[in-house]
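Minutes, structural biology subgroup

Action item carried over from last meeting: produce the structure token record for HflK protein (hydrothermal vent metagenome). EB confirmed the sequence was re-checked against the source entry. Recorded below for completeness.
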Amino acid sequence: MAWNDSNNQNPWGNNQNQRPPELDELINNLKNKFDNFFNKNDNKQNLSFGALGSILLLLAVIWLGSGFYIVDPAEKAVELRFGKFQRITSNGLNWHLPYPIETKEIINVGKIRTIAIGFRKGVNLRGIGFNGNVTSESLMLTKDLNIIDIKFAVQYRINNAKNYLFNIKNPDQTLREASESAIREVIGNNNMDYITNNRSIISGLIEDKLQILLNNYQVGLKVTSVNMQDAQPPEQVQAAYSDAVKAKEDNQRLINEAEAYANDIIPKARGLSSRILQEAAAYKAQVVAKAEGESKRFDKVRIEFEKAPKVTKQRLYLETMEGVFEKTTKVIMDSDSNSLMYLPLDKLLKNSSKEDSTTTQINNGNTKNKRDFRSLLRRRGAR
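Output recorded by EB:
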């Protein structure tokens, strides 16, 4: 209401002579109103007390029941009391003091997680998966000062839920940085050829080195495997590196062929030399034995010759002539003998049929026999 309205009235009514109430009067009026209100509700208070207790009891049951929770077999639950670690519970039904006194953090310790070093997997706008190269992680320097483009996939799981939640602010990022550090250390201590030809050994070395770092940091993670996805020179020098690899492969192939030829020919040569030595030893033993036999036979003939020189000379002559005329087709007969002689015509004809094919051999043999016969006669004549 405006003070200057047309009726010229004030906020306390039309009576301009009425004065505003005193402060004590206002306080007394309020006190009387409160007293009347509480006197009216005294009878109702006894009736509503039982209902209020039931409501509070129900709320307390609901609050306590909110502390029950279930942990799956592959999970662990970490209970916190006012934000401080209290205990770790295993799978099954568990209970803790309800919020805000205690809270819980459920961690999946059985899940195998994977981080990529040197590349990232993703899906484009068309829904097609792709692998993107991260050169800041994949390019590394080897021991022989070559640059290699290498990619790894590290698989891990949580083995200590308490350390995973409280010791490190960002365990996954710590794992990535520790993995890159371990990879660069192992790659820097080995040559490029050894890295590309021994992937499983390199992966094992990186896994051991990475686990040592994680244990020192107490991250609460366990490395299950380190897999080398790719290892090759940078794209800018791949052509030159391929030519060098081919040259090394050709060199190794020629070395392998030479070693195979040596492995084939050397045993044969050793076998041949051994056979020749054995034949020479056998020939030597044969010649020595024959010479010793001839010497013994000559001693026996000499003894008989000293006993009966004429008879022995005649026998030697006949034996020599028998050996000379053994292969001839001529028959020598005694003209003074009247006995009937049997001639082996079948053997004579058989020998004559072979005479043409063995003429050269017979001539050579006859020449040798003549020389042997003459030398034998000379020796016997000398005696």
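Discussion: Residues 329-383 form one domain.
Next step: EB to file the record with the rest of the batch.
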